[in-house]
């Protein structure tokens, strides 16, 4: 039996490439948020030009920390 997903009643194998990329992107964002990373998204409404920047927060901005 193939695993079902939250995209309708289709199986993972039946997803389009765009649906697979969307699901992977959602998982990446979920992991980033759970890890406490900073996530910056552009405010562009066009999904094709939307960009995301994920950064690790730096508590101490001394040169020692930034050199790691």
Sum this structure up briefly.
The chain has helices at 17-34, 63-66; strands at residues 38-41, 52-55. It is an alpha+beta fold.
Task: Give a structural overview.
The protein is elongated and about 50 Å long. By secondary structure, the protein is α+β, with helices and mostly antiparallel strands. The mean pLDDT is 75. Helix content is 32%, strand content 12%. It has helices spanning 17-34, 63-66, and strands at residues 38-41, 52-55. It is built from 2 helices and 2 strands, in the order H-E-E-H. The chain has a two-stranded antiparallel ribbon with strand order 1-2.
* Low-pLDDT ranges: none
Apparent shape: elongated
What is the first-to-last residue Cα distance?
47 Å
Count of distinct strands:
2
Largest sheet: 2 strands, antiparallel
Can you write the helix and strand succession as a string?
Answer: HEEH
| Fraction of helical residues | 25-40%
Topology:
Layout: H1 17-34, E1 38-41, E2 52-55, H2 63-66
Antiparallel strand pairs: 1-2
